[in-house]
Each structure stands twice: as structure tokens, then as C-alpha cells.
Amino acid sequence: VKAHANRVSLIAKGNLYHNIFQTIPTPDTIPRAVTQIKSKGCFENLADSEEVNKQIITLISNREKDHPEWFSPDWKVINERAIIFNDEVEGMKNKRPDRVIVKGDRAIIIDYKTAVGVVSGAQEGFPPAIHTLEENKGQVKLYAQLLTQLGFKQIDAYLWYILDDEIVEVNC
Predict the structure, then answer these.
(1) Helices (DSSP H) in the chain: which residue ranges?
(2) What pLDDT is recorded for position 63?
(3) Is beta strand 154-161 parallel, antiparallel or unpaired with respect to 106-113?
(4) 3-class secondary structure, 123
(5) Alpha carbon distance 4, 128 (integer Å)
(6) How far apart are CA 22 and CA 112, in angstroms?
(7) What DSSP designation does 96 have?
(8) pTM across the whole model
(9) Calpha distance 87→140 (Å, rounded)
(10) Which burial class, exposed, middle or buried, applies to 92 when counting CB atoms under 10 A from its CB (0-12, 13-18, 19+)?
(11) E runs forming strands in 58-127
């Protein structure tokens, strides 16, 4: 029962963070995004909104050194937008990358993951992740293939395990 409760709590917290991140184009919009999600009743007893606000500011600040473009106003941000394509076997399908930023013919995919311990190994007290690192990489590689078909010439792709604050570059 305790393991199930931990899993449900972790999934809910992951969904909360994911919902906030999908509404943040630049760091100055973090407080508004947190307030907006809080006003929809998404926090409940999961977390303190001020603490979440601070954590997200810290997470994004930690990224700015190595990836200043990720939350730069100089890049166009496309959050959670469907890419519709024809699968030869299944017909029309769509995929939704969490965040794609574009500038000219360059695109950067940032896919948020909220499972804990996927990169470094399962952590005690947390349920195992639903998907493996390789499965997550495969998902992002598909996004990159679709963006190539849309005409982007240079594509970089990353998995960001938010709750662990770990970045995995995906070679496309």
C-alpha cells in the first residue's frame, strides 16, 4: 500500500511540474505559470506553491549556464504542439514534444520526464519508472525525425529528468 501511495504521489507531483513547465516560455513567466496552475486547483496537498516556484526557478537557472537558449526570449517556443504524420502501418498519428524551441532552421527538443532514478538507477522508496532510458530516447528520436521532415536542418534533442535534475543528450 505504501509503495502504491508513493507511486501515486510521485505521478501527481510529476504531472504538476509538467503542467507548469509547459506554460513557461521564459523565466520571468514562472510566477504567473505557478499561480495559473494553482488557481486551477492542481496543487491540492501535493506541494507548497511558493516552494514549487523556487524549485522551478532553481531548475531553470541551473540550465542557463549550459543551455542558455532553452528559456531565451530570442527563440520561438512551441510547447505541447502536435506533429501530425502518416504512419505506414497505423495511418494518421500525432506526437507532442513537450518543448521545441526554434530559430531559423534550427530546432531544439526538450522532453520533460518526471520519473525518478531512470538515469542513475532506481532510488529506494520510489517506484520503478514506467519507461527505460532507451525507450525515452527512442521517443525523442522520433520527434527529431518528424522535425527533419518539417524542414529543420539542425536538431538537438534532450531528455530532462526534472525531479532528478538530470539532462541526457539524445543523438539523433
Answers:
(1) 2-21, 30-39, 49-64, 133-149
(2) 92
(3) parallel
(4) coil
(5) 11
(6) 9
(7) -
(8) 0.87
(9) 16
(10) exposed
(11) 76-79, 83-87, 91-95, 99-103, 106-113
Nearest to 95 by CA among 45, 145, 169, 163: 145
Contact 158, 170 (CB under 8 A): yes
Residue-wise pLDDT for 104-163, tens only, equals 999 999 999 988 777 776 555 555 566 789 999 999 999 999 999 999 999 999 999 998
Instruction: Give me the residue label for grid cell 520527434.
Output: 143
Q: What is the pLDDT of residue 6?
A: 74
What is the helix (H) or strand (E) element at residue 26, kind and residue range? none
C-alpha to C-alpha distances, 158 to 19, 46, 100, 110, nearest whole angstrom: 18, 27, 10, 5
- Which residue in this structure is represented by grid cell 538537438? 156
The set of cell numbers assigned to 159 is: 531528455
Distance CA 21, CA 56 (A): 8
Dihedral (Cα; 65, 71, 75, 78), 10-degree rounding: 140
User: What's the grid cell of residue 123?
Assistant: 532510488
